[in-house]
Target: DUF4351 domain-containing protein
Amino acid sequence: MNTVLKLSSLLPKGMRIQQINHLTLFKFTDELGDRLQTLLDKKKADTLTATENLELEAIAELDEIFSYINAAISSRSLRTD
Model:
């Protein structure tokens, strides 16, 4: 059975919006950042379960999305300054 983890399920407890200088950026909460580190450690130790691997993939995808959005916000800010 293949379980799918929806990215939106990570948002309520996993996302915070942080003001850095004049930019509003998307960041992981400490809770989600800690969970990511735990999963990465388990992957490195080769003790990650299939379900945890799906969770790790979802968090990594969310990280890519946040990075893209934050880069776009930063780039836009540089053009308007």
Summary: The radius of gyration is 15 Å. The mean pLDDT is 90. The beta strands are 15-20, 23-28. Residues 7-80 form one domain.
